[in-house]
Design brief:
Layout lengths: L1 E8 L13 E5 L4 E5 L6 H8 L5 E7 L14 E5 L10 H12 L4 H9 L15 H12 L6 E5 L7 H16 L3 E6 L2 H7 L2 E6 L2 E7 H8 E8 L3 H14 L5 E5 L3 E5 L3 H10 L6 E8 L68 E2 L10 H10 L2 H22 L6 H6 L9 H19 L14 H34 L10 H26 L2 H23 L10 H8 L6 H15 L1 H39 L1
Parallel strand pairs: 3-7, 3-8, 5-6, 6-7
Antiparallel strand pairs: 1-2, 1-4, 4-14, 8-9, 10-12, 10-13, 11-12
Helix pairs in contact: 2-3, 2-10, 6-7, 10-14, 11-13, 11-14, 13-14, 13-15, 13-16, 14-15, 15-16, 15-19, 16-19, 17-18
Length: 633
């Protein structure tokens, strides 16, 4: 059961009309419910309010719980809003497997859904190369990953061919037949009459009618004869008089521009009547159209028996064969009664719950249930990561070979491919770029935020990104040193290659540099929500921060910190082993280096900024909720 109570959007400016105004309706399990309205009527705004993607007031219950109180939303509510929000270079199978980690379902679920939506042979196709129909199928598969009870779809058949639209509605009807709740929006009344068990009509953000599908077809969607004549009033009077004389139920509606809409008659009868009375006719055609939100119900002169059901000509599609919808003899879904009595399209009003006065805050999505697996699939699901790592290796090896030609070049500088002209070695820049992409791509291609809100700032997701980016940075740094050493051994021989006596401290410093650059790029991209900000933060460390740190650390009056491990040992209880002093001295040496101190300072500032931006949103939500509670009381 889906219950929307008192949904109201926040007006953009004082005096402007809200896109959704006190909207209340429900979608029942076992039924397909259509939210019908013309473009601009507030359908999408209503769905976004229900999913807590936009700010406003009201409350929506999904089986008795609002969205923010559902522990695992992907397992309760499946959402399709627009195109697939994923990296265009990622494959369809890779996208679904990455989202499996978000919903916490087995990876095999991705292949099952690819087969269900008819994409079993296109799993290796890139998202950017998918057609509109294939994109909609992939979006529907993403919504079904967690096997949700409720589906919320925004105009799912927009731009689709009739065959694909029939297949999609057949799948939705099969979903509802198994007890699920399906709500989709549409601007086509004929589509709603053909495929929905219940039709909720809105106009201007307000509820106009809440009807059974059969009642909607009879009262809102009827066959008519469209007539255009310069003597509309005379023809209307003549047609009505002859219908009364022949005791036929005919309704004539006068429209603007000399148009008439005649219900319960035919083109032949209207043409004969106009000919007998010498009235010219400029247009005469059969139509099946919507009479509009304010159309009258069946009047005494109208004939329910003459109304037809547009949905009777074609049945639902066969989900097992998406390419071919069922033929004209397909059976109607169970539970739909087109022959019920005449319906009343009066708005349905319900008592609003006290929670409807509470504000709806735009909330960020919950992080993935399996953040580490998600981050690994996100990182290696596109070729960008492999290309960056390959480019770093090639450039680093080339610089190492060039630096080694100078016999006086220090061996650590040669193996690290760090000439004095460069502010950072290529491996540090590459690690920073990979770190910046790990958050920058989340905002550019927000796969996590599809139908759930903004990109989440959850601690689990941040820790997963920190762990994965650090691991990739260490592996890349180690690979550069090993590959450079082997290349130098091959080019120049092995006589001059040796292990430095301070190899441990050099290795720790080298790993700390790459990890620090990766984290700086990651945090800066998370704070400023763009990849370029992360890269700029990495480059700013040696260019801007290091000179400032050098002024502080290398001044003439700087006191040394020699003997700090010994003094710390005196303060601690119990006593730590002697070997710990060495590691403390090593860490102090890394931080005392200008580049290490600059990185430590930059990371501290970025961590504080990241936490501050996350806490600021929570404080704003609490203040809004407190204000809403005070107004409700």
């Amino acid at each position: 059961m889906l219950q929307a109570i008192g949904l109201t959007t926040s007006a953009p400016r004082r005096g402007l009309r809200a896109a959704v105004d006190d909207l209340t309706f429900e979608a029942r399990p076992g039924q397909v419910t259509a939210l019908l309205g013309t473009p601009g009527s507030g359908k999408t705004a209503a769905l976004r309010l229900m999913l807590e993607l936009d700010s406003g007031r009201g409350v929506t219950y999904f089986r008795g719980r609002p969205m923010h109180r559902i522990p695992h939303p992907a397992r309760e509510v499946g959402v399709l809003l627009g195109d697939v929000p994923g990296h265009p270079a990622r494959t369809a199978r890779g996208q679904l497997r990455m989202l499996c980690a978000v919903a916490g379902v087995p990876v095999a679920r991705a292949d099952e859904l690819l087969e269900l939506v008819g994409l079993a042979g296109l799993g290796d196709q890139r998202i950017g190369a998918l057609s509109l129909g294939m994109d909609r199928r992939l979006a529907l598969a993403s919504a079904l990953l967690g096997d949700p009870h409720t589906l919320v779809l925004d105009d799912p058949t927009e731009g689709l061919a009739p065959c694909e639209g029939s297949w999609l509605h057949g799948l939705l009807q099969a979903r509802a037949a198994r007890g699920g709740t399906v709500l989709y929006s549409t601007a086509d009344p004929k589509e709603a009459a053909r495929t929905a068990d219940r039709v909720v009509t809105i106009d201007g953000g307000r509820l106009v009618a809440d009807q059974d599908g059969g009642d909607f077809s009879r009262t809102r969607l009827r066959p008519r004869v469209a007539v255009r004549t310069p003597h509309a009033a005379r023809l209307a009077a003549v047609v009505s008089r002859e219908a009364r004389a022949a005791r036929r139920s005919v309704e004539v509606v006068t429209e603007a521009g000399g148009r008439l809409a005649v219900y319960g008659s035919t083109c032949a009868e209207i043409g004969d009547t106009a000919f007998r009375h010498g009235l010219p006719v400029h247009q005469l055609a059969d139509e099946i159209g919507d009479t509009g939100p304010t159309a009258p119900v069946n009047s005494p002169g109208s004939s329910p028996g003459n109304s037809t059901d547009p949905g009777a000509s074609s049945g639902p599609a066969d989900p097992a064969n998406p390419a071919c919808p069922a033929g004209p003899d397909a059976a109607e879904p169970a539970g739909r009664d087109r022959g019920a009595g005449a319906g009343d399209p009066r708005p349905v009003t319900r008592a609003a719950a006290p929670e409807s006065a509470l504000p709806i805050r735009r909330r960020s999505a919950r992080g993935p249930l399996q953040p580490l697996r998600y981050e690994l699939r996100r990182l290696f699901g596109v070729r960008t990561t492999t290309l960056i790592m390959a480019a770093v290796l090639v450039v680093s090896v080339g610089l190492s070979v060039l630096l080694a030609r100078n016999a006086h070049a220090p061996l650590p500088k040669v193996l690290a491919a760090w000439p004095s002209l460069l502010p950072l070695p290529p491996v540090a820049v590459g690690a920073g770029l990979l770190g910046a992409l790990s958050f920058g791509d989340e905002f550019r291609y927000p796969a996590l935020a599809a139908g759930r809100g903004t990109v989440p700032r959850r601690l689990g997701l941040l820790l997963a990104k920190l762990v994965v980016s650090a691991s990739v940075a260490v592996v890349l740094a180690l690979a550069v040193v090993l590959v450079s050493a082997e290349t130098l051994r091959l080019v120049y021989g092995h006589d001059w290659l040796h292990v430095p006596p301070n190899s441990v401290s050099l290795g720790v410093s080298w790993a700390a540099l790459t990890v620090g650059c990766a984290w700086a790029g990651l945090l800066a991209a998370g704070v400023f929500r763009v990849t370029t900000a992360g890269v700029a933060a990495v480059l700013a460390v040696p260019v801007l921060v290091v000179p400032l740190v050098q002024l502080v650390l290398t001044g003439p009056a700087v006191r040394p910190v020699t003997g700090l491990p010994v003094r710390l040992r005196e303060l601690m209880w119990p006593r730590w082993p002697q070997e710990t002093d060495r590691w403390i001295a090593l860490a102090v040496g890394v931080v005392a280096h200008p580049v290490g101190a600059a990185l430590a300072l930059s990371l501290s500032v970025l961590v504080c900024a990241y936490l501050l931006t996350g806490l600021q949103g929570r404080a704003r939500w609490r203040s809004q909720r407190a204000a809403g509670s005070s107004q409700a009381s």
